[in-house]
Amino acid sequence: MVFKDYYKVLGLSSNKVSEEEIKLAYRDKAKQFHPDINVGNNAAEERFKEVNEAYRVLSNEKTRRRYDFSWIRYVKYQRNQNGTTQNRTIKDMALDILFGTADPNTGEVKMVNSKKATDGEDIDTGINISLKEGFFGVKKEIVLKDIEGQDSSVTIKIPAGIQNGDKIRVVGEGKKGLNGGKDGNLYLTINIDNDLNYELKGIDIYGKLKLKPYEAVLGTKKTINLFDEDINIIIPEATANGKEIIIENKGYKAERNSRGDLHLFVDIILPEKLDQKTRKLYEELKKIDK
Description:
By secondary structure, the protein is an alpha+beta fold.
């Protein structure tokens, strides 16, 4: 496992930065490597994914605090010229922090029972939720098989604003231990599905805003509903097809009460069939345009 310096990914030289500085750095990098700007550039696409991954971790107070323990150890390791790390690898330290074998307040590593023959195995699986379920939070029932092949169910509470790719650890809900051994843990990776209208990228949401030709030409006011909230959008005159409209703080949930942005791209819908009256109006328009 290669330790990723998420601060460096966002162009930050230190972890002594504010939430606002992280957000500004993220926006700058996301714009630089956005696939729409770097069409066909696979390297830029990978960097864009890495930037979103870094922001997902650093924009959340809890995951950032845990990550910082690993980051501090990593920096110390890099500065250690003789290469000694108290017999612990960067992979060990990162996993200790991110998956809970280290105390999140002190960074002190707890000893783990190494008797694999008696301890229950962990279960690592994924769960798909909708964009709306991720935004508001939801309870999900997970069906697992025990060591005898019998189904057992576990109800998982997924918090509001969980990020795509986040892991939830449920202690003791893995495979049962034998001969007095500890039960394993259940690790759930959250996969947020895009719906028909919107796509989640980091904490920003992307979608299309469908307009009729006359709405794009004359301008109009449109109302869309996202996460049970009506959002009013003013469309100016002569709006071109594909134009991006950014509505700040109406995207997915981020840290505390903040949100990402909503990006809407104008999609002018032409009629499938022209009636006589509509055709005549377009013919008149054609004459005027000459």
